[in-house]
Every structure is written in C-alpha cells, then in structure tokens.
Design brief:
The protein has helices at about 5-15, 20-25, 35-40, 45-90, 95-110, 135-140, 150-155, 175-185, 215-255, 260-280, 285-295, 310-315, 350-390, 395-405, 430-450, 475-490, 510-525, 540-545, 550-570, 575-585, 590-595, 600-615, 620-640, and strands spanning about 110-120, 125-130, 140-145, 160, 190-195, 200-210, 295-300, 320-325, 325-335, 335-345, 415-420, 455, 460-465, 490-495, 535. α10 (about 260-280) runs antiparallel to α11 (about 285-295), α13 crosses α15 (about 430-450) and α20 (about 575-585) packs across α21 (about 590-595). The protein has about 650 residues and is an alpha+beta fold. The chain is flat, with a radius of gyration of 36 Å. The chain has five domains: about 10-75, no CATH class; about 90-240, Beta-Lactamase; about 300-375, no CATH class; about 395-545, 2-Layer Sandwich (Alpha-Beta Plaits), CATH 3.30.70; about 550-640, no CATH class. It has 23 helices and 15 strands. Belongs to the CdaR family. This is GAF domain-containing protein.
Length: about 650
C-alpha cells in the first residue's frame, strides 16, 4: 500500500465517529448504528476504517444507552414529582389514583396497570382503578383474601412478580380470578403492596399480555408509586375524618346553642392555624395562637421535658389528657413522638376546646415534619458541596459560586475550616452512632444559620464557616466548640485552620486546611484539652511536635510567610536582615556592621518586618517561633538548591 493510501486510511479512521455522532444527534434507533459499518464493508473500505467504525459504533451505543437511561430516570423522577404535587393539592382521591396508575403503566411500558383495595365491610378486595383493561369481567373482579398473586402480596407485604401467571403455583388460583386474567389476556404480572404503616390496604399491579421479566428498577419504581397511592388514600381518609369531626362540631352547635362562643373560638383557631401553615409559620406561632383563643398559656416542649406519664397516655389514647392543673397533647407523626403541647392555667377544658387543642398538636406535628424534611434536604446539599470542595471534584469557580449562593453562602468571603469530634466514647456502637448523628445535626444547623457548610467525615464533622469581623480563627473555633457541645450535651473538640480567601478560585485549599484542622484537633487531644477549640496558629512550633504529620511548610508559611513573599516579590533582604538581627543578639548596631549597611537601613527593614508580622513580633514567644521558622526555611531552601 502506498504512503498516500496509508495516510488516507488513517484520515478515514480518524473521522469514524462522525456518522455515529449524527445518529446520536437525531436520536436514531439502535439498529441504525449498524449501517455505517455495513456500508464500509460493502464499499470494501480498508480494515483500519472498518475497525475504527466498529469501535466508534460500540462507543456510540454505550453513550446512547447512558442517555436513554438518564432520560428514563428523569421521566421517572418527573412523574413521581408530578404525582407528589397532585397529592399535595389533593381534591379528588380517585383522580390522583388514576394519575398514579396511568403514569405507572406509561413508565413501565406495560399493557395494563390496575389497583385493588381491601373492602373491610365485605372482607375481600375489589378493583379500584384500571388502565389499559379491555375485559369487563376483569374490571369487576372481587378477590377473596389470600387469593391470586395479589393475595400473596397482601399476605407477605412484599412485591411479587410472575413471568407466566398460569404456570406459577406459588399462589392460590381460583376459577373467577383465572377467568378474569384469561379474558384480559395477561401473562406477566408484577404486584407491590400499598401500605399505611405496617398494614397492607391494597395492591398496585403492572401487567403485560406477553412473557416479560421486570427489572429491579421497575419494581422499585412501581413501589414508589404504590407509596404515593397509599399516601393519597391515607390523606383522603384523614380528610374524611376531618370532615366528620367538623360535622360533629356542627351538630354540637345545633344541640348546644349556649356554647356558640366556644365554637366560634374553635373556628377562629382553625382559621388561624390554616393561615399560619399557608404563610409558613412555626411551632411557636401555633402555640401563641392557641394560647390567645383558649385564654391560657400554651407551650411546645420536647420529649425530655414533657410530663412523661401524661405524654405517653396522650400518645396512646390519641387525645389531650389532664395533668394536674395542665393539659398535655402529644405531638406525634408516623409512630414517632416529637414532643408535646402543654396548656397551663386552664384546668377546666370543655370538649370543643379540647379538640381545638388536639388539632393544634396535629398541626404542630405537620410543621415539625415539614421543617425536618426541608432541613434534611438542605443538610444533604450543604454536605455535598463541602464534599466536592474537600475532594476537589469540581474546579469551576462560577459553578461553585452559584451552588454556594443557592445555600446563602459566599465563597468570596474569608472562611475557616473546622474539624469537630466528640471526645466521649459510647458504651455500644448504636449509642456512638446516635451521638455522631446528633453532632452532625447540630453542625448542619450551625452551618445553615451561619451561612456556611457542613459534612460528616472521618468519624466527626467538618465545617466551613465565614470569619466574622474582628474575629480570629481561634475565636471561631472556641465559639463553635461551645455551641456544638451545648447542642449535643457532650464535650466537642474543634480544631481550626488558618483563614482562607477566594475559595471558589482555589478549592484545593479546603482539603489542605481540613488536614491542618485535624492536626490541630489531634494536638488538643494530646494536650488533654477535650471540649476546647483552637487554631493552628495557637500552637506555633508546638503544633509541629504534637501533630502526627509534621506540617513544616505550613508552620513556616504561617510564621514568616508574608516576609518570604515580600522578599520574593520585591527583591529585598528582610529575611537576611532578620537572621543577622537575631544572630547579633537583637542589636541594630551590631547588625548594621554584620550587614555592612547604615543603622537607619537596619531600622527601616525591621520596621517593615513589624508591619508584615505584627507589632508583637519581638515578644519572647514570637521570637522563638520566628527563629525556628527562619532556620526551617533556610534548611528547606538549602535542600532544594
């Protein structure tokens, strides 16, 4: 083969990706990717060209598969979000359930999707919603408990899938069910339970009229839709319960006309609570509103300070209970006890006011759950950004600033990296894990309120907090140690780095600063200063002796770095002047003889050193550190040369 022909073949191999990029751009089907290779072989192209096309085809198919997977996941998340939005604005539970079944069928790509619910009165289950069904007998099926694949799902509270319904003997076949399935022509069926708490209330199905294997992701997706369907049903039940309660209040108003003032107060608090929720009010706003309506003092208290026996009784009975001269209503959600509302100064409470008090507790639980969900989401996002800064996975300053701005953080401000760790050892692994979770939660709250970031790492937490005006890294470390220790009720030790500037442009500085904070934390531990806070600058050269990793360059930089930079940028001799000054017993007169300069020159240079290092640079402690830093710098410079 001639040289020109070889070069032509190489150029042909180089642009092998072009046809596949075009196919990707127009979203061509997978089979279309064979055409460039087949065409090249038909035209007897060189082997290198064919091989390059084959390699480009495989790569393009992988890219196409990844793109399709991302589009599918985006569609799934979008459908789940839309369904959750429908649920949040629930007006018609049937409409929400129909939307859930329709979206499940669409995303899983099945012929049929349907939902069955238990009928407590009849003791069986019935079809509530079907999508894609064409057989009337199938749409009207009523199944006895434990019958069919749905009965197996309901009994075990687990998803079940069969790729051939009529050949599967894991569940009980009945003539009625099999006839309905046969009318519909179903073969492969997937069923997942609808659960409210530990109770199965129905089953959500996706089915095909041909043999099919459902993937794990599809089973998980249908389970997510089932959870939303169960939430819709539960919400509808709660709305029904609320409406029933309002009906009872209405009848009470007709029967007990002399209690109209009490009912007006209940209506007023209802409106106030609704308004509070809509405008984003907090727990204490609810307590204040109820206090005014009930003419008493209502306070929210945690589980640790509420009257224990009364709190448990209220939780068990589901109503407010009397406790001495007070009333206690448990604030709970999903089986979790969140605290209590305590009504003081009101020993006599009529049924309507009691119900109002209980409604306030219910609203309080909803607000707490909403606040917790929002806080957890923000904590995760703050942790992800700080993890990215620590691992330096994202070096785009613009993107870093945008992400920080969304969290009300400013990466252009001066920050300090703090490493925090509990200094007590729990009796068992569960208690230690719980203590770490409390520390992480407290650190996240501190970061959110202080416009910083927090993440869990290395058995403790790491925080990135802005430095306040006239505040040093040491001040910030001690304040943070005190705040975290108070929050978790245990000693928390905090080590801080030196201040950092322009983090968006230099994200790699965060990882180095975290290592510096950890060394400071270790130094505090070795000195027995548990529960205290300090910065690397507090230890000076002692930090080099105490830290496991001798950060010599960091010590030199913190101590005389500004003088080194000044000499390098301006070509001055401040370092040599300092060496001579200390060698001559800190005597300017002897120093000028050693340097062969005028004494005024020595004085000017020392004045410049003072402006760079601070007015106390000639104090005994600073002098020792500066001399050590000068020697270490000289040794490191000699080693490089």
């Amino acid at each position: 083969m001639s040289r020109d022909h070889e070069q032509s073949a190489e150029r042909s191999a180089d642009n092998a990706e072009t046809p596949f990029l075009q196919l990707l751009a127009r979203g061509a089907p997978a089979e279309a990717y064979e055409q460039p290779v087949l065409l090249a072989r038909a035209e007897s192209c060189p082997a290198a060209r064919v091989a390059a096309l084959e390699e480009a085809k495989q790569l393009a198919l992988r890219v196409r598969s990844e793109m399709e997977g991302r589009r599918r996941r985006e569609a799934e998340l979008s459908a789940l979000f839309e369904t959750a939005h429908d649920l949040a604005g629930l007006r018609d539970v049937d409409a929400v359930l129909r939307a859930i079944v329709q979206r499940a069928r669409s995303l899983l790509g099945t012929d049929v999707a349907y939902l069955s619910l238990h009928d407590e009165a009849e003791g069986d289950t019935y079809m509530r919603v079907t999508e894609g069904s064409v057989a009337a007998r199938f749409q009207q099926l009523r199944l006895g408990m434990g019958e069919g694949l749905g009965g197996l799902v309901a009994q075990t509270a687990r998803p079940y899938v069969t790729d051939d319904y009529f050949k599967d003997d894991r569940f009980q076949h009945t003539r009625a069910i099999d006839a309905g399935v046969q009318d519909e022509g179903l073969v492969a069926i997937l069923g997942v339970p609808l659960m409210i708490g530990p109770h199965v209330i129905g089953v959500l199905f996706a089915a095909d009229r041909r043999a099919r294997i459902f993937e794990r992701e599809q089973i998980a997706l249908l389970g997510s839709f089932a959870a939303l369907a169960a939430a819709a049903i539960d919400t509808a039940n709660r709305l029904t319960e609320t409406r029933s309660a309002l009906d009872r209040l209405g009848r009470a108003h007709e029967i007990i006309r002399d209690r109209s003032g009490v009912i007006e107060r209940a209506s007023d608090i209802h409106d106030r609570l609704a308004e509070l929720v809509l405008r984003g009010g907090g727990v204490h706003d609810v307590a204040a509103a109820v206090s005014e309506v009930l003419d008493g003092t209502v306070e929210f208290t945690g589980t640790d300070t509420a009257p224990g026996a009364a709190l448990q009784a209220s939780r068990t009975e589901g109503h407010a209970v009397r406790h001495g001269q007070d009333w206690v209503a448990a604030v709970a959600a999903g089986g979790e006890l969140l605290g209590a509302l305590v009504l003081g100064g009101h020993p006599g409470l009529d049924p309507v006011d009691q119900r109002t008090f209980e409604r306030a507790a219910m609203v309080t639980s909803l607000l707490l759950l909403a606040r917790r969900s929002a806080a957890e989401a923000e904590q995760r996002v703050r942790g992800e950004l700080l993890d990215d800064l620590l691992d330096v996975r994202d070096r785009d300053p613009r993107l870093l600033r945008e992400r920080a701005t969304r969290l009300h953080a400013d990466l252009d401000a001066v920050h300090v990296v703090l490493a925090a760790r509990l200094d007590t050892t729990a009796a068992d692994a569960d208690r230690e894990a719980d203590a770490r979770r409390r520390l992480w939660s407290a650190a996240s709250h501190l970061a959110a309120t202080g416009h910083g970031l927090a993440a869990a790492r290395d058995g403790g937490t790491v925080l990135l907090l802005p430095l306040g005006p006239d505040e040093t890294a040491t001040d910030l470390a001690r304040r943070t140690a005190g705040q975290l220790g108070t929050a978790v009720q245990e000693a928390v030790t905090v080590g801080a780095s030196a201040p950092l500037e322009d983090l968006a442009a230099h994200p790699e500085a965060v990882a180095a600063a975290y290592a510096e904070g950890q060394r400071c934390l270790e130094a505090l531990r070795l000195l027995g200063r548990a529960g205290d806070g300090a910065a690397a600058e507090d230890f000076g050269f002692l930090g080099l002796l105490l830290a496991g990793d001798r950060d010599i360059s960091g010590f030199v930089g913190r101590t005389i770095g500004r003088v080194v930079d000044y000499d390098q940028q301006r070509g001055t001799d401040l370092l040599r002047t300092l060496d001579a000054y200390f060698a001559c017993g800190m005597s300017p007169a002897r120093t000028k003889d050693d340097l062969h300069v005028h004494v005024n020159t020595v004085a000017q240079r020392l004045e410049r050193v003072g402006r760079l290092l601070g007015e106390d640079w000639q104090s005994p402690a600073r002098v020792l550190e500066i001399q050590l830093a000068l020697r270490l710098h000289r040794l490191s410079t000699t080693a490089r040369h």
